[in-house]
Design a protein that fits this description.
Elements (H helix, E strand, L loop, with lengths): L1 E8 L5 H14 L3 E8 L5 H11 L3 E11 L2 H14 L3 E5 L7 H6 L2 E4 L7 H19 L7
Parallel strand pairs: 1-2, 1-4, 3-4, 3-5
Helix pairs in contact: 1-5, 3-5
Length: 145
């Protein structure tokens, strides 16, 4: 079973975001073992970097606005390659201040879901939804249209 880690700064305070993340994690549980690690927010991205990198394992994917954009199908292909190779992956979502350069440089992939800026709590929901969509695409499910 695919192992995926989500490392993020801060806890989700709003119930509707927590509920959405939990729903997608429940759906994903049949495809992958997902671990969410919430780290405390620092004064700036550099003060968070050491704990972020320590919590990461496997192939690191940094979510950042300057990263590469994928279609849902291309992202599904990336997830399929990870699964087929048996590689563990860690997706990193920074705080509202972003990610330190050393975290971005440690990433094999820099991934952008948009050139727009989203609240980091909402980004967790978006990432979980896109992971679920990727597994559904790869499995030939009806979810993706």
């Amino acid at each position: 079973m695919q192992k995926i880690n989500i490392v993020c700064i801060g806890k989700i305070k709003e119930k509707f975001y927590r509920d959405a993340v939990e729903e997608y994690l429940k759906r994903l549980s049949r495809f992958a073992k997902i671990t969410v690690k919430e780290l405390p927010e620092g004064k700036n991205p550099e003060s968070e970097a050491a704990s972020v990198l320590k919590a990461a394992s496997g192939e690191i994917v940094a979510l950042c606005v300057e990263g590469e954009s994928y279609s849902s199908e291309a992202f599904a292909g990336y997830i399929k390659n990870l699964t087929d190779s048996g590689k563990e992956a860690t997706f990193i979502i920074g705080s509202s201040c972003g990610l330190a350069d050393c975290v971005k440089n440690a990433a094999r992939v820099r991934l952008s879901f948009s050139h727009m800026t989203f609240p980091h709590m909402l980004m967790r929901v978006i990432l979980c939804e896109q992971l679920y969509r990727a597994f559904m695409i790869n499995g030939g499910g009806e979810y993706h249209k």
